[in-house]
């Protein structure tokens, strides 16, 4: 028998080795088709449908424990109406040391998993009857209402986000964690403007769906496109395609200062593979009018970071500057004067007296 077990173990090990690791298919997360949030009335109807248990109790600072007391009752009747009726005839019976102390009653209704859906309470002064005992006054009623937030089922969602917009256009977001397939939704959002986004984070990644605060599922709308990226007033030139070493390498820069609060200073990256003359062609434009041409430039080499101020002719008709092979960063630093941005004192400096 032991030999047979050993053979079977070897066979199983061989099968696993041959076929590799056993994998399982990932099931897509499930979300509700709609949410019961169209109005407070719809939300209340949804909660009433979920009621499965009711619990009521009384309490007083002067209650004496024991003495065959009955201070609580539970009902698991078929409908909310039957549960409430059964709780309303609980026949409380208890002893007190001070009948002038108020007696408080608290009642809650729950779903099948004992999540609270409705609650209410009241406090009363005991009435003395002819035989010397006391009673809870006839007609005492605890009105039940929805709490601040209530549990609603959200399928496999692990979290929720409420994106709210009020009548004046003010917007904010509120984040809710899901537990046991539910979120605690603040009742005040029911029927309002905005959306609820349910998100699942787990095997297979992240999946989200959206609903209006009126409860309707929002179809997914696919968006595609690109957003261009630009370094303002920056360009790169090289002599890769200039086979003639006598040819001048040129770069054109146009600096438009129209309606610009913060103008970035122009910078050109120049890469030359042989001794070559380089000329930067620059114009400063405002409202379509050319303001000025040439400027003094700083030439910084990429190899060791030395900076040297050299006169770089910026307009046509002048030869430019001769550069040895290498990479250079040419900044037209005198255009810094065009910037409208000014230094500001640090926040801790305060006002000067």
Characterization of the model:
The protein is mainly β and 353 residues long. It folds into 3 domains: 40-135, Immunoglobulin-like (Sandwich); 149-218, Immunoglobulin-like, CATH 2.60.40; 234-338. The protein has 3 helices and 24 strands. The protein has helices at 2-19, 40-50, 80-87; strands spanning 53-59, 63-64, 72-75, 95-96, 103-110, 116-124, 127-128, 134-135, 149-153, 159-165, 171-177, 182-186, 194-202, 205-212, 217-218, 234-238, 249-256, 267-272, 276-286, 289-292, 297-301, 307-310, 321-323, 326-331. The strands form 7 sheets. It has a 5-stranded antiparallel beta sheet, with no helix packed on it. The longest helix is centred in the first third of the chain and has 18 residues, at 2-19. The model is unreliable at 1-22 and 313-317 (pLDDT under 50).
In a nutshell, what does this entry contain?
This protein has 353 residues and is mainly beta. The chain contains three helices and 24 strands. The chain has helices spanning 2-19, 40-50, 80-87, and strands at residues 53-59, 63-64, 72-75, 95-96, 103-110, 116-124, 127-128, 134-135, 149-153, 159-165, 171-177, 182-186, 194-202, 205-212, 217-218, 234-238, 249-256, 267-272, 276-286, 289-292, 297-301, 307-310, 321-323, 326-331.
